[in-house]
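Q: Predict the assembly, please.
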Amino acid sequence: MSEQESQFILILFGGIFFAFLMSLFVVAMVVLHRQRQVQNRQKLTQIKDENEKTLLNVENEIQQETLTQIGRELHDNIGQLLSLAKLNLNSSKPEKQSEGKEYINQIIKEVRTLSKTLNLDWVESVSLDDFIRQQLEKIQSTGFCQTALESDGSFLELNKDHKLVLIRVIQECLNNAIKHAHPDKITILVSKNGTSRTIEIRDDGKGFDTNHQSQGSGMSNLKKRMETIGGKFSLTSKVGKGTQITLKLPF
Amino acid sequence: MMKAVNLDLFYDRLGYYPLLLVGFAIAGLFGYLQLSKEKRKNEPLKFCLEILVTVGFYELVATFVSSQKIVNLWVYNLFNAHVAAVLFMLLIGSFLKRESHKKMVNIFIVLFLLISLVLHLTGFVHYNDSGEYISFLNTVLILCCCGLYFFELITIDEFLEIDPLKEFSFWASTAILFYFSSSFMVYISFKYLYTYHLDIYYMVIQIPRHMTLLCNLLLCFGIYSPLIKDRFQLEIIHV
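A: Predicted assembly structure:
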């Protein structure tokens, strides 16, 4: 084989080897990209499953809360009304009987209202501002503490899932404030800025040291729940200076 | 007295290679003019056209200059090693998603032009030499730009939604990578081969020539892709 022929063969094989290496590189890039796509899809499915699970939990908790409330209403309100109706209807006096009938009407009204809260359709019909107002009125009516709501209506447009999670988180925050902080006043501020809307829940209660690790998983649960709807949960508190919880949700 | 222009030799030397490149440039220009105003603003398409026109133009000029018995290396040094190389870097830069990577490509370009200027001013390289050093430099930088693109392809979330095999940026980067890496050895051994192994030189010079044709064909196809999509509702490749 002449020198020229051997050089030709060297260049030819060198070229083939080089082309093979380059092709291998590009194929490897495509394979790596595909693998990342698959991993990403699995991750997305996992996040979706977790979100669905969280929503289901939230719905269950709200239903549980509603059932407790219904039990209380049946015992404290409807039970009392039924006793009064029975007493009045048993009387021979016509005015007492008509009073008994009025009680029956009132009971029917109360039962209708209660039955509406049994499924979660009320979530769609009530605005978040109305819900917060109802919750604060309930707290104030018990004489536990003063309450205030300042809202610019930023959360009037919400889908059902977002509303469910926010309702549950707000309920939980208020329950915590009542249970642990013993405040004189609870204030809720609803506002917005350019990119997000915010709910601030402030109390002037005992407060706590945020550096101290809590035993329970309440706060991390609330944080996770806000994350499932693309929101953020943050908390600031100092001993003796109350607590401020901020719930942020992008538009 | 002015030397007469030898057009006969010029026509003789117009082989399939410069003619095809000029054809791609004209086809690219025609396709680009058919695009809607919005599509014409698409950066990669603009750079594709600029590359096609530049390559077609300098090949024609180089053929003309050589037909007048004048050394035409300055044409390749100026247009191929500088203008086209910078346009290729800008094209890859337009495919990148991260601002930091885009900045890096711009730094590469400035660095390349500065080094080239210094090398020319100091007399280390001449505008009419075989241009090994400049070719080495621009090829390394273009390969780095391709590396940035492939790095983004496998690391950035925005690329997760796309199918790379249907993406123009992927095929263009692959073609540029193949073109410059396969031409690399030829360009830097240009002087040696031309001086000592002329037959091998003529053999290996076909590699960058055919890679240029392939690359320009792909860029031309990239310009026509939005037109095909609009006319036939068929997206062969996404630009």
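Residues 172 and 222 of chain A are 8 Å apart (CA to CA). Chain A touches chain B at residues 4, 7-8, 11, 15, 18-19, 22, 25-26, 29-30, 32-33, 36-37, 40 (CB under 8 Å).
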